[in-house]
Design a protein that fits this description.
The protein is of the alpha/beta class and about 270 residues long. It is about 30% helix and about 25% strand. The strands form three sheets. The chain has a six-stranded mixed β-sheet, with helices on both faces. Strand 2 and strand 3 form a beta hairpin. Helix 7 packs across helix 8. It starts with 7 loop residues before the first strand and ends with a helix.
Amino acid sequence: MPGANLYKWICRPDPCRVSLLTGDTPRVIEIRGTTTLVGLLGWPTSHSLSPPMQNAGFAALGLDWAYVPLPTPPELLADAVRGLAATGFAGANVTIPHKQSVIEHCDELDPIATAAGSVNTLVFSDGRIVGSSTDGDAVTSQIDAAGRRALVLGAGGSSRAVVEALERAGAEVTVSSRRLPGWPPSSTGFDVLVNATPVKDDILVPPRPGQQVVDLAYLSDRRDTALVTAAREQGCEVVDGLDVLLFQGAAAFERWTGLAAPLLAMREALREG
């Protein structure tokens, strides 16, 4: 269907080779017995544009690697993480709703993941599971946070990562969530507005002219979310969910492969499909 990520495994006569069709225009990625695998742990994963983005990166560097979606219900997360480590996966991304609960299944966390209490990237190496967080720096690398007042919407794993990065960058941060008193907040007096919830079609808090607006959410058909549309109409400086996905994904790519991520190829896969 248009705008959806299509994944289809095709058996070949050679039992060590399958093909993955991915993206709006299906593209074959051969998976052999030599292919290094990474994946995406989430529930659901059907909306994600990470697979076409990461696979475009691997192809651009000529790597025999493949990135696959791994829809994992919460009650099976522990089994899934252990299974990936046991079967030779190089790593994985972690998305909603597992960014906090996956921590207990890691042998080690990097300093940022420890401070944030959130993990979106796993590296499997020498029998150990190392968790890291690249969400926050994907935001602060694209805005001017130092000395700014930031309002972050949401209280989940993505929010925790963004708050940690903003504070580390010198921002004064206020967190507001529908689960906390005082909802909905006003964005008056804030320089930065960050949506760290999965809400895409509604404006939770209206942006104001002159603000830097970051929306971690994105639509799989690549249209602007309601917040991004409103922010552009207000003349705000905007970082949309595809921008954030690109930079957090590039950092994960580099952790897995040890190579600089090919940003142009990955950006093209996100923006053009």
